[in-house]
Amino acid sequence: MKLNCEGCAGCCIDWRPLASTPSDHERRGPGEPLDDAYNLVPLTRDEVARFVERGLGDALTPRLWRVDEETPGVVVDGIRIAAVAGRPVFFVGLRKAPKPVAPFGRDRRWLRTCAFLDPETLQCRIHEADTYPAECAAYPSYNLDLGVETECERVEAEYGTDRLLDDDPGEYEGPLLGPQALGAKLFGYPDPDELAGVVDRIRDGALRETDRAAFVGVAAGSRPGTLEIDDDRAAAATADVLDADSWVGRAIDEWETVAEERGGVPAEFADEPVAEDGPEDGVIGTVAFDVPSGDAVEVARGAPETPGWDAVGDGD
């Protein structure tokens, strides 16, 4: 499989505000995600545990789904959420942050972006690390095998630049689907009563550190193929997430603060460019011009630098 990824990152950025026909592909099927994250990357249990072990547990967040009366579920905070055997089910993925980015040759804009994406080079900071998710490494192979439109094709349709250079999915470890996903990528929260208030916070985009830690702990303590949980392992992982103080978590806090102060949020303002100069007050309409760089926010806090595209071979 050959891809042209330079200047794109369509699979890492919520670029719906830039699209004439935004995709709603994550809101199809029997369940609707409670959050509004775009292209959330589901991690396996082992990947979740690895992030926690590396001190990056504060980079993780859960996803739950709203379902109809015909789908197995439980009601929490007045919302029927997907469940298996009475346990709310969830994925764990990577958090997003508002960053000033310039994908597809456009002017810089505030867009929700994967926490690990360098906003200048549009390269992943953990691409060569052992924490790089298998789902990211395989993308878009799953889509190609399942005959589902890829983010590469969506970008091509919108901007005309060739991104998917061939449609051979190549060799990759197949996706976890069906019962084999339980406890390995799809996890069951043991006590729905504990989620009172949490479901509302997920829907409102206001999750607390303790909320995320509890979900990550359950995922890390899950036993593949079952709903069983190793309580000791779950408790240890929860504690590690609460203790985490990684560059990722600190950078997310900084990006959110800067974006709020300088007009980068809410999402409806994301289609306005980040101007390079402006009036003395530093704001043009809803967007500030004096935004910090990725190096200033992320590398200064310990993030690995990215190599730049000159160091990457064609099709990588």
Automatic annotation (TrEMBL):
Matching InterPro entries: DUF7531 (IPR055953)
Highest taxon in the source lineage: Archaea
Annotated protein name in UniProt: YkgJ family cysteine cluster protein
